[in-house]
């Protein structure tokens, strides 16, 4: 396993787990950890100079994103990168679930939610979009936060679990991570239209704005994936 980047190491257990999670996430998104490679807990604990506990906690969080898999009797391994076909299937699944989530969330949106969504859109506008996770990580986080806030407000545990199971933001950014964010201007405008529907308390409008956003993201992702596959 290649050396992992290390910043200043925090002291508390929870902060250590967060630190390990962020470092591993960065390595996964940048492709420094090869698909299929093993993630030995003891080896990583030595690498990070921590106990195995924060490593286990970080890996469990990463498993929920689909970036790592736990294999019986073999431990954790880096998940394969999506194929262009799998990426298209992911976007089709998002196209089914996220408009319904947006409509439900908008129907009982709170002032706190609207404020948080505005902050997320503002963060998207100011975030860098370069080719490494260190450069585009803040953009990804704001994008993921925007969609997650809406999913949490839908007040339906099954829809929320379905949204979380997709891992849509992580997998899409991982697929194109070495390119940086190529569609920021379009995506920010689309997020803004979703926010405007929420502000206007228009559930049907929120559903349509989210549907239009996911449809356009899907089309851009499929186009870029095809171009990437043809070039490789």
Q: How many runs of DSSP E, i.e. beta strands?
A: 3
The first-to-last residue Cα distance is 24 Å
How much helical structure, as a percent, in the residues? Answer: over 70%
Q: Gyration radius, to the nearest Å?
A: 18 Å
Number of helices: 10
Main beta sheet: strand number and arrangement? 3 strands, antiparallel
From the spread of the alpha carbons, the general shape counts as: globular
Tell me, rounded to a whole number, the average pLDDT.
88
Low-confidence runs: none
Order of helices and strands: HEHHEEHHHHHHH
The portion of residues forming beta strands comes to: under 5%
| Adjacency order of strands in the biggest sheet | 1-3-2
Structure description:
The protein is mainly α and 232 residues long. It has ten helices and three strands. The chain has helices spanning 13-29, 41-48, 52-65, 84-107, 111-126, 133-153, 157-166, 168-175, 184-199, 203-231, and strands at residues 38-39, 68-71, 75-78. It has a three-stranded antiparallel sheet with strand order 1-3-2. The protein is globular, with a radius of gyration of 18 Å. The two termini are 24 Å apart. The model has no long low-confidence stretch (mean pLDDT 88).
């Amino acid at each position: 396993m290649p050396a992992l980047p290390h910043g200043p190491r925090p002291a508390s257990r929870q902060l250590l787990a967060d630190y390990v999670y962020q470092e591993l996430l960065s390595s996964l998104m940048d492709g420094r950890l090869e698909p299929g490679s093993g993630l030995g807990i003891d080896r990583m604990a030595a690498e990070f100079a921590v106990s195995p506990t924060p490593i286990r906690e970080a890996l469990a969080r990463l498993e929920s994103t689909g970036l790592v898999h736990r294999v019986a009797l073999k431990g954790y391994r880096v998940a394969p990168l999506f194929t262009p076909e799998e990426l298209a299937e992911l976007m089709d699944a998002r196209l089914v679930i996220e408009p319904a989530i947006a409509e439900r969330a908008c129907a009982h949106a709170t002032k706190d939610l609207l404020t948080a969504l505005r902050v997320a859109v503002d963060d998207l506008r100011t975030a860098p979009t370069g080719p490494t996770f260190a450069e585009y990580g803040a953009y990804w986080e704001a994008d993921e936060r925007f969609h997650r806030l809406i999913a949490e407000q839908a007040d339906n545990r099954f829809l929320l679990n379905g949204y979380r199971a997709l891992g849509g933001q992580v997998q899409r950014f991982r697929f194109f991570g070495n390119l940086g964010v190529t569609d920021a201007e379009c995506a920010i405008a689309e997020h803004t239209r979703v926010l405007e529907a929420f502000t206007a308390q228009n559930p049907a409008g929120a559903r349509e704005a989210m549907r239009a956003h996911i449809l356009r993201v899907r089309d851009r992702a499929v186009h870029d994936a095809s171009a990437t596959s043809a070039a490789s």
